[in-house]
Write a structure and sequence with these properties.
Shape: globular
Strand content: under 5%
Number of strands: 0
Order of helices and strands: HHHHHH
Distance between the termini: 8 Å
Number of domains: 1
CATH class: Mainly Alpha
Structural class: mainly alpha
Number of helices: 6
Length: 208
């Protein structure tokens, strides 16, 4: 049966759309940073500001969820979706933060590919989340976006493994440890994109 949503519940969709736009903005800034480490200080500050906006959006979702009895989806799904979107922003900020604080220098080709994959995943997330206001109508489109996110996560995972293998073949242990942490946060950001895709797939299954 197709669910009918009360007008007051539309705010959840607005907030999720706002959060994906925060993620897309942060991912684009990180891609700039990866391409030009000399701008790391300024771009890191910009990402930090976007992450702060994302935190406020997450808090508003949580507050609204606590006060809403008849939510458009299961409370658990809304909570998990909000939490994983927030995790993406946290890991993007952590990636930029470490690149600046560790003075990591020029990114490897693998890191560039990971940043590209994260940006593409953010674009796919934006499209998928925009569709959940009418799951029945947009089910196929949402699932296609989710499939693309899974593909991008696999690509990023492969690039991370290649990058780490190169790192630990070198002789500079400190350099390797710095970049390992950076790669881990970047990979975690894309992993959380995949977690969001999995949640969205579950919502589609439940509500179509």
């Amino acid at each position: 049966m197709k669910l009918k949503f009360m007008p007051t519940e539309e705010r959840f969709f607005e907030l999720f759309n706002a959060q994906t736009k925060h993620i897309l903005r942060a991912a684009a800034l990180l891609r700039q940073l990866v391409g030009d480490h000399l701008q790391a200080e300024d771009l890191r500050k910009q990402i930090e500001a976007v992450e702060h906006e994302g935190d406020m959006t997450t808090h508003e979702i949580a507050d609204r969820l606590n006060r809403t009895f008849n939510a458009p989806f299961d409370h658990e799904d809304i909570h998990d979706l909000a939490a994983r979107l927030d995790d993406i922003l946290d890991n993007i900020e952590a990636t930029a933060d470490r690149m600046f604080l560790y003075e990591a220098g020029q990114a490897s080709p693998e890191m560039v590919t990971m940043a590209d994959a994260l940006l593409d995943a953010a674009k796919a997330l934006e499209g998928a989340v925009e569709g959940i206001h009418d799951v029945n109508k947009n089910a196929r489109r949402i699932m296609d976006y989710c499939i693309e996110i899974h593909r991008l996560e696999n690509l990023a995972d492969e690039q991370s493994r290649l990058a780490l293998a190169k790192l630990f073949k070198g002789t500079d242990a400190l350099y390797a440890l710095k970049w390992k942490e950076i790669y881990d946060h970047a990979e975690n950001a894309i992993d959380k994109c995949e977690d969001v895709a999995t949640i969205l797939e579950g919502i589609v299954v439940k509500h179509t």
